[in-house]
TrEMBL record:
Residues 6-75 form the Transcription regulator AsnC/Lrp ligand binding domain. GO terms for cellular component: cytosol. Gene3D superfamilies: 3.30.70.920. GO terms for molecular function: sequence-specific DNA binding. This is Unannotated protein. GO terms for biological process: response to amino acid.
Amino acid sequence: MITAFVLVESERTALAKLGGRLQEIDGIAEVYSVTGAWDFVAIVRVARHEQLAEALAENIAALEGVSRSQTMVAFDAFTDLDLDQLFADGS
């Protein structure tokens, strides 16, 4: 599984609705509104790099109200949770 953290800055006029729109994108598992320089953190969990590229370039970047974004791809996870089991999609 590929996990990425996407920091999203919203235009002020889109702030109220953008979190819900982000959540509707395939591959986005969670969306958090946050304090600081960014407005949202979206957690993307996908099976293939092509799915990640689609979520980022074709979906998040194309959303009306997204000013800019920054993506960090996780190399490893340190958790007691079995993330593969939690997010298994049969791929």
